[in-house]
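dumping this here before i forget
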Amino acid sequence: MLSIEHYIPYIILFGILFLSLCFFVFRLVVKRNIFSIGDKILSVFQRFKDGVFTILKMKTKVQFLLHTFFINFVYYFETILTFKAFECTEHISAVDSLSLFVLSTYGVVVPSPGGMGTWHYLMIELLALYGIAKDPCGRAYAFVTHGAQDVLFLVGGGLLLLLLPIINKNVEKNIH
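structure:
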């Protein structure tokens, strides 16, 4: 039986050929503006570029970047803690946790409500690459992690929603 290492050169070659084909099709569609798709694609890229460069124009860019880092650090730390909570995943190192955290993020990017389903599927498959059985451990990990985040959002968001009038009252006093 051949191992995955045997297929790596073929996978890389296929990936390069596939990306090259996508690039040339993309250029053709944009250049010829087939069905006005080219204009739509260029518009999406322009809006993305404008959004990224908005950070440079912000007055509070350092705060924005620190909050972004902090939020992602908390997600990463939560990933590590949840790995330690399961006997079948407690051996996963911090570096492996980081790679799983980053790769599983693509499951949230796929257009689905909050990564529901796509994140779970991707995390279960990624854990299988680390030798974790898909059933029950991979599924349990994915659902407990996502469920814990949902509970945190609901409880934290609900509390902050209740505190918002008090916080805003104090802010209004400081403005006037």
